[in-house]
Design brief:
Elements lengths: L1 H6 L9 H7 L10 H23 L1 E3 L5 E3 L18 E4 L1 H4 L3 E5 L4 H10 L7 E9 L12 E10 L7 H25 L16 E4 H7 L5 H11 L2 E5 L26 H4 L7 E8 L4 E10 L3 H10 L9 H7 L6 E7 H8 L15 H9 L7
Parallel strand pairs: 1-5, 7-8
Antiparallel strand pairs: 2-4, 3-4, 5-6, 6-11, 8-9, 9-10, 10-11
Length: 377
């Protein structure tokens, strides 16, 4: 069981195509044609972008696809080094002024610097239509090497670094997602199907410590699967802090979300962390389905503590980390909402490849063809 828990920390992927073939639905039929799906994608994306910006007071800005390695702005995704970015050398000016660059894995760190660049004040923020490459994922039904997210960030005060404010912001995001589903159903009534219940109006908030207490012997993904049978839409708080079994709920990078802050005064329980994930039960795939990862960001103090716990203090010399340590960028809250993940859920699709165009291995495309799942190419 210990090895299973440890193997479950890195996050995504089923990891085996024989298993994936068993998991994908046998009786699947898309409720929308290919043409209708494309029409729905762009209408829903516009709805979410507009309403997210309104609810959180965000302005839409440009976002980089590539960053300088030395900036420290790329997202490491976790702290075990298992997912590394695509890197390449730009031999600018015959290598007299070269740049070592990386394709972003997410815009998490860049956005916080972006708040300063775009002169955002407290209560204001930015929203991006982010594209990224994550080459180390196992490519299954809801993980691809191509990543599209609504990456957003908003300036906050020190007094807003608490669970009440975190839940308030999460609630606004959930309101937008539920509204987007309602919008999709009005636009395409054929999406109304008794097999696929609508999202609940309210989200259930649970701490990682509480879920472990409920299912102490199960690895993380199985705990999530079990709790989603009781609560079909949840926000798990405190992802990254080591729990009493010795493992975090899931590995989290040490230099953006705050997963170390003690929140026991607010909860009356031994809880930590000001971050979390929204997960829902996907009635098409009959599996857990993550929509967004987000959180209140680290301060100078919590950054140092988390880097120390992650054995990554060598990162402190990088510009991004120095900006935090020297209070040159604002306190913030932010996250990334998976675009294709959300569209897959709202349009009752069985595979990401039905709503995004990217590369898939032949074995996966063959499995999907047998299951009546049309993967776009």
């Amino acid at each position: 069981m210990v090895s299973n828990k440890q193997a479950d920390l890195a996050g995504p992927g089923i990891g085996d195509y024989n298993e994936l073939e068993k998991i994908l639905p046998r009786d699947y039929r898309s409720l929308l044609s290919v043409r209708e799906t494309q029409q729905a994608i762009f209408q829903i994306k516009r709805y979410i972008e507009d309403h997210l910006s309104k609810e959180l007071n965000l302005m839409t800005v440009e976002v980089p696809l590539i960053v300088d390695v030395e900036s420290g702005l790329n997202d490491l995704l976790d702290r075990d080094g298992s997912r590394t970015p695509v890197s390449f050398h730009i031999s600018n000016d015959y290598d007299k002024h070269p740049i070592d660059a990386q394709v972003v894995q997410a815009a998490t760190k860049w956005k916080r610097v972006g708040l300063r660049q775009f002169e955002c004040r407290v209560g204001e923020g930015i929203c991006t239509d982010m594209r990224a490459v994550r080459k180390d994922y196992f490519l299954d039904h809801d993980h691809s090497a191509y990543v599209d997210q609504w990456d957003w960030e908003r300036v906050i005060t020190a007094g807003e670094r608490n669970l009440v404010f975190l839940k308030e912001v999460v609630g606004k995001i959930w309101k937008v997602l539920v509204g987007a589903e309602r919008f999709a159903l009005e636009m395409f009534p054929q999406l109304k199907d008794d097999r696929y219940p609508n999202l609940p109006e309210k989200l259930t908030f649970l701490h990682a410590e509480e879920i472990l207490d409920m299912y102490p012997d199960l690895p993380r993904k199985q705990r999530e699967t079990m709790v989603l049978q009781q609560y079909p839409a949840i926000f798990i708080i405190g992802i990254g802090w080591p729990l009493k079994d010795g493992y975090p709920h899931e590995n989290r990078a040490a230099d953006y979300d705050d997963w170390v802050t003690d929140t026991s005064r607010e909860t009356g329980k031994p809880t930590h962390g000001l971050n979390g994930d929204i997960l829902v039960w996907n009635h098409v795939t009959r599996r857990r389905h993550e929509l967004t990862s987000m959180g209140i960001r680290v301060t100078a103090e919590t950054l140092k503590l988390q880097l120390e716990m992650a054995h990554q203090l060598d990162l402190v010399t990088r510009e991004y980390h120095q900006d935090i340590l020297n209070h040159r960028i604002p306190l913030s809250i932010g996250g990334g909402i998976g675009q294709s993940r959300t569209l897959m859920l709202l349009l009752r699709k069985a595979h990401l490849g039905e709503v995004s165009v990217t590369v898939w291995p032949k074995i996966l495309k063959d499995i999907c063809a047998k299951k009546n799942i049309l993967v776009l190419e």
